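Hi Y.,

Following your request, here is the sequence exactly as I used it, all 295 residues.
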Amino acid sequence: MPEQPRARPLHAGARIRLHAGRAHLFPAVAVPEGMVAGQYSVLSPGTERRHLAGSDRDAGYMTLGQADSAWLLAPVPHGAAFDPQHHGAVIAPAGTGVEVAALARFQQMALLGLDRVPGVELDGAIVVGSGPVALGCVLELHRRGVTNVRVVTSRRHAPIGRAPGVTCVVPGTPVAARLVIDAAGDPRHAAALTEPGGVLGLLGTPEPTASLSAIEVHRAGWTVVGMHELAAQEAAAYRDAYSTAAAFLTERLPAELLPSWCRTVSGTRAPELYALLTGPGRPAEPVIVFDWRTA
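Below is the corresponding structure, written out as tokens. Let me know if you'd prefer a different format.
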């Protein structure tokens, strides 16, 4: 019987490997024919912390490459070359900067997740967390016309507080809302802030052991909504959501806000930044972009 042809790989040449709780840098390799070079990648702190505590693996899942003068962002490891036809790739509108393209990826998550939330007043919502997922969420709420969002965060002077309409409050502050969105992977904390009969949205990825009491949900009359970006999404709707977020940020985001939210560093610094993720020295900016062009 003749040998069956192998499926073309979706990516090659990951630059960061997690081993024994640490990030290790690997040298660049030649870009395979037909693939797009990974020029930048995006650090997702919550996901990366979980992966550091797990088994060995290539790190990352947001890498940017350029094709036909447009940025493609694919769910592949840090710095890897990838197939431009990758089923999960999205295309940034012409003129989108690298950092805006990265930030739009987090807003896309919130756009798709909020589309799943049943009819409820968005103004006055509470968002738990101040990382990139939370930032993408408040920006999407702003795009939808919301003018009042409370963000629960323990981080002093969190940059998310500069987003339009945002007021930061520390954990333990007596606040509650009809709509509470967990963007930190801590559903029990978010549930405690949800008013009876309200909506609890799970946007951040919870730990596998995280749980909510069914009797508590029952008695409070909450509607609990899983807001994972891939839940029942058509490919076209997924790509359109990214284009919408990127276009909004390009047109409406005040230029002076971007430096406080996004920082670009050489990919050679990746192991150093991974080492900071589990301690108090984590970078203040929610979105960290690795530059692989000369690394």
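The longest helix spans residues 235-252.

Thanks again,
Q.
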